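Example A, followed by Example B.
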Amino acid sequence: MSDSSNPQRLRALASSSGSADSGQPATGFQRTTSALRTVLPHLLRLLPLLDGNVGSAVSNLLNPPQPSPPPAPPVNLAPILIPIQEGLTELQTEHRDLQAQVLEQNALLIRVEGRLERVEEAAGRNTLAQQELLKELKAVGNRVEELKAAGRKVNVFALVALGLLAFSIVLNAILFLVLRRVLP
């Protein structure tokens, strides 16, 4: 039988609900509160019946509540935390080193970028100078072509002059021979 149907327990409940400190009989409120304290665990076991869970309600009534297990002994985390803290310290040191390397690399990249800009400017100046030289070479080439054409004209003139000179020499030689015969 369940504890709620035990009349001796209910009488003991009613007699213990009186005010023990003052020796006065218990008031209605105190008796009601005491009765609710006694009945409340049984009501909590019957509460699943309202959901239609009859099997669990019956098992709750038949099986007394299990005592809670003793608290677990405190765990000593020091052997685990020390290597973790050492690892964290090592990671922080490596992080600082990597951060310093990144800063150095950034500074190096800035210097390289400055050098590249100077090289680009120099290449631009060289390109302009080469373009000017190319224009000058073309102008010199044109003058050379003009001089060649003029040289050809001079060559033709020189050949004509040499031809006339040769003709004049031949003519003079013929005249000399003719005059020599004529003049004794």
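Example B, a separate protein, is given below in the same form.
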Amino acid sequence: MSGSGRRRRPGPRTPAGEPVPPVPDARRVAVDALVRIERDGAYANILLPKLLSRSALAERDRAFATQLVYGTVRAQRSCDWFISRFALGDLDETVRAALRVGTFQLRFLGTPPHAAVSATVEVVPRKARGLVNAVLRKVADADDAWPSDAVRLSYPDWVVEHLTADLGSERALAALTSMNGAATTTERDDGYTQDPASRWVVDAVGAQPGERVLDLCAAPGGKATALAGDGARVVAADVRPRRVGLIAGNADRVGLTPEQLQAVAADGTRPPFADESFDRVLVDAPCSGLGSLRRRPDARWRVDADAPGRLSRLQARLVEAAAPLVAPGGSLTYSVCTLTTEETTGVAEAFAAAHPDWPVVEAPGDPWIPWGTGALLLPQTEETDGMAVFTWRRPD
């Protein structure tokens, strides 16, 4: 009872019964995000901005929360290796997320133990604080005699094995190490923010002002808007209507008119366009994304070992369906943001075998490296997405 004799109304409490802190905390936001990513299958790049917009975090704390979420998701396997050495039995989802955040700070950010441990302990229910405190203190003092490169770099075993087989050990490990870094972006003159590698794919298409260009798998529209910005008349297609709206929205935001870029819903395997109606066609195909893992931190845990083979069959269908749409003397460009043999040279060699009269267009030079009849951009070369690109010219 208060001095006035009136009972105080209890403040808001968490589902675990703990009082909600009056001041928002970046670590609490990060733990909430990690729980939802694992429990609900949420995507980090979609979920986190929503959580941050609803928080009262200052800009500096928002940046810290973002670093914690993206970094912890990337380093999840490495963090779990430390945690599993000292935490026995099943862990509550909030406790597991907090331990991962704490371990990431201790082992990858170099946060002093007294700061990382005490601050992380504060974001878990009171009954779990002793456990989190004890585990994190042991993690802080533990050795890091990693059992494998996959654990050290925090990837599924199959990803490391697959890229090692396709690229060689030195290139693969350098690529995987590079993709554990933060994503790089550049802002174009029109204000669109884009990974430099995507811009270089646009350059490889080689479209000239006034040419009619089809971007067959265009969402979210970065390459299509760049092509239109360079003066081409672009049709940007995607099979999903919602994603077509995203293309149109991005085109509008950078000031493109419908005459410059037309966004349409279309199945790329059965494109509803007239034969020989485009000077250039770009097939930036759906892929396993194993070259763009720096931008998609949770993708490494979502893609499965069968994805490269399964997607290569779709990619081959898309390229074959696009070929009749190219006008005589025009060009067809195939690109993917992955590094696997099946999805790069495998698709390109199959197309070349089926169209021996289509000459190969010279591949782009530095920073690309020759890759079959095309070119490969390794993530470690310029700290960008990894990409592959192949271009053919339709005979006159």
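On Example B: The CA atoms of residues 26 and 61 lie 6 Å apart.
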